[in-house]
């Protein structure tokens, strides 16, 4: 019989990560079979999609509560299928709120449960590690500081690097990016990335537009690019431009092309999240900003462990780029912070060197390394080691 692996990936990022992992495992075990919850990229690799990963997407606490019964039903049905079909292993890709419960049940039923992408226990809710210890047979971490946290808790762990570091070139080509986007080779370009979710764009777009106005007053030659992930977020930004009577600003909205926009830019204004890591891998100076509901911000700030929210600062373990959050994220403050980068070529060059070192540290051939860590749990492979199996 063929090796069979159940998997759950949430959202588009998990679908991409899981598709690379499937390909890497198949390189070692060509007839391996995969099923569970996934997206189109996983399906293109031959994954049997029982539910599309879009069904797991929730937007905030309220949406999660509204959809709890639906999501719980999907999870319990999948658990029944896994118990009945007895795959050789289960791999949960990110989506910890959905996957950790499932992993605990599957591991309790005698099957290996591997979690790919560590929850942010280093940022907040560190008490989850006790539940993780009960749930997972092995944790696969994207960041180099994470394994020590799991080793202290006695959880088998492997650092596999970050997949973006594998796919992004060490030396980004700004000229090509500008040519691709139809931007002038000379002149200053600022990329504005207000986030991928509608709530993020709704909160940040007016502030970003006012910031652009201030910068244009100081630097009449500057232009702006705004990559937006969906039609809905593009419409929200267009409405914010209209409300601010700023339709004449030299702002070019893009449908996607966030990486190209950041590559082409001299400096980036970015909502905290994965986009800030992308900007770092592209060696771009940036200002990180974020704004959420007042009470939600107070709650998260009370529960946070680190002085930073941006991945570049967290990974460098110091403030290498400014973070202006919540009430500090005003147009004048953001404009001043962006302007400092524009006037500091030496500082930009030093930052690029720091980000190059970070890029090399994160570049680990993630999919291959993750596959190598998973193979010992597949008890019909040459690499099988019984001592690695869950009790």
State the gist of this model.
By secondary structure, the protein is α/β, with parallel strands linked by helices.
The tally of structural domains comes to 2
In the CATH hierarchy, the architecture of the largest domain is 3-Layer(aba) Sandwich
**Strand count:** 13
Distance between the termini: 24 Å
Question: Which percent range describes the beta-strand content?
Answer: 15-25%
Query: What name goes with the CATH superfamily of the largest domain?
Result: Glycogen Phosphorylase B
Structural class by secondary-structure content:
alpha/beta
Radius of gyration: 22 Å
Widest sheet: strand order?
3-2-1-4-5-6-7
* Name of the CATH class of the largest domain: Alpha Beta
Number of helices: 18
Form type: elongated
Question: What does the secondary structure layout of this molecule look like, with pairings?
Answer:
Blueprint: E1 4-9, H1 11-28, E2 33-38, H2 40-44, E3 48-52, H3 60-66, H4 68-85, E4 89-93, H5 96-108, E5 113-116, H6 128-135, E6 138-141, H7 147-152, E7 157-159, H8 163-167, H9 174-181, E8 189-193, H10 198-218, E9 223-228, H11 231-243, E10 251-255, H12 258-264, E11 267-271, H13 274-281, E12 286-290, H14 294-303, H15 311-316, E13 323-325, H16 331-342, H17 345-362, H18 366-374
Parallel strand pairs: 1-2, 1-4, 2-3, 4-5, 5-6, 6-7, 8-9, 8-11, 9-10, 11-12, 12-13
Helix pairs in contact: 1-18, 4-5, 5-6, 9-12, 10-11, 10-16
């Amino acid at each position: 019989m063929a090796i069979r692996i159940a998997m759950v990936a949430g959202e588009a990022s998990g679908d991409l990560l899981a598709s690379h992992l499937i390909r890497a495992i198949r390189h070692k075990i060509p007839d391996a079979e995969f099923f569970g919850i996934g997206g189109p990229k996983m399906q293109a690799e031959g994954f049997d999609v029982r539910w599309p990963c879009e069904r797991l997407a929730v937007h905030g606490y309220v949406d999660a509560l509204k959809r709890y019964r639906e999501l719980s039903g999907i999870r319990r049905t999948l658990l029944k299928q896994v118990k009945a079909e007895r795959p050789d292993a289960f791999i949960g890709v990110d989506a910890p709120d959905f996957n950790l419960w499932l992993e605990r049940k599957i591991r309790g039923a005698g099957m290996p449960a591997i979690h790919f992408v560590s929850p942010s226990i280093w940022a907040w809710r560190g008490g989850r590690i006790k539940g993780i210890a009960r749930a997972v047979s092995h944790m696969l971490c994207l960041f180099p500081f994470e394994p020590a946290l799991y080793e202290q808790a006695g959880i088998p762990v492997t650092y596999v690097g970050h997949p973006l570091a594998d796919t992004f070139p060490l030396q980004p080509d700004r000229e090509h990016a500008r040519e691709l986007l139809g931007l002038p080779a000379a002149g200053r370009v600022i990329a504005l990335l207000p986030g991928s979710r509608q709530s993020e764009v709704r909160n940040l777009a007016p502030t970003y537009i006012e910031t652009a106005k201030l910068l244009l007053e100081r630097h009449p030659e500057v232009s702006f690019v705004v990559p937006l992930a969906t039609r809905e977020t593009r419409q929200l930004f267009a409405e914010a431009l209209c409300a601010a009577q700023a339709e004449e600003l030299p702002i070019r909205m893009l449908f996607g092309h966030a990486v190209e926009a950041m590559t082409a830019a001299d400096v980036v204004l970015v909502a905290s999240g994965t986009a800030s890591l992308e900007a770092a891998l592209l060696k771009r100076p940036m200002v990180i900003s974020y704004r959420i509901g007042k009470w939600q911000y107070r709650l998260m700030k009370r529960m946070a462990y680190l002085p930073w929210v941006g991945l570049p600062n967290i990974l460098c373990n110091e403030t290498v780029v400014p973070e202006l959050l919540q009430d500090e994220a005003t147009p004048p403050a953001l404009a001043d912070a962006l302007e400092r980068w524009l006037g500091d070529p030496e500082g930009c060059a030093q930052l690029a060197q720091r980000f190059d070192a970070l890029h090399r540290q994160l570049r680990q051939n993630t999919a291959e390394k993750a596959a190598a860590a998973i193979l010992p749990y597949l008890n019909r492979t040459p690499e099988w080691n019984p001592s690695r199996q869950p009790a």
